[in-house]
Every structure is written in structure tokens, then in C-alpha cells.
Amino acid sequence: MAVTLSERAAQHVSGFLARRGKGIGIRLGVRTTGCSGMAYKLEFADETPEGDEVYESHGVKIFVDPKSLPYIDGTELDYAREGLNEGFKFNNPNVKNECGCGESFNV
After folding, report:
1. How far apart are CA 107 and CA 105, in angstroms?
2. pLDDT below 70 — which residues of the chain?
3. Could you tell me where the beta strands, DSSP code E, fall in 1-107?
4. How many CB atoms lie within 10 A of CB 19?
5. pLDDT number for residue 95
């Protein structure tokens, strides 16, 4: 499997990187936190992190650390607008439960 971006998310990330003026892609991972156990980490990557898996989706490089990969393998990162709210949405097939606020999950 792989970690991918929707076309809309890729356009959004590409725009951020262009405005930022540096960066080679994004880095996705998970951390232990929240009421359900894990939360997503999303940050810019300015260099290739040693040991990370590298994927490319719609021209954007996605780096994933090996410890996070089992939890997010198969995930598609989308960028959605719902009413007045907009932001990234993780479509993760591994999620069993999410907390009520949507900030954390477990597998």
C-alpha cells in the first residue's frame, strides 16, 4: 500500500511550499496523545529524513517514518472545505475508533 494525497490536497501543499520558498514535500506520522490514543503529525520536509519511506502523489513527495507507517499505510490525505471550515482530512482505512472531537484515533 502507500500514503497518497488527493489532487486538491496536493495543490494545497504545493501552494504552501511555493509561498514558503523552501521544502521538498511533507512528512506524515503519528504520535501518542488524545483520548483515543494517537494523533496525526503533519509537517514540512526540508530534507529527506533518513530511514523514511518516500511516496509521491500528484507531484508532491510524502515522507513517512517507519514507526508510523503501520498505522497510516493506505491513508489518503484530502483537503476539504465544509461550510466555513477548511483543512486536511485523513482518510485512514486502519482507524477503528475516533474520539468525539476528531483529533485522535486508535487502530
Report:
1. 7
2. 34-36, 96-107
3. 4-5, 25-33, 37-45, 53-57, 60-64, 76-82, 85-91, 97-98, 105-106
4. 7
5. 78
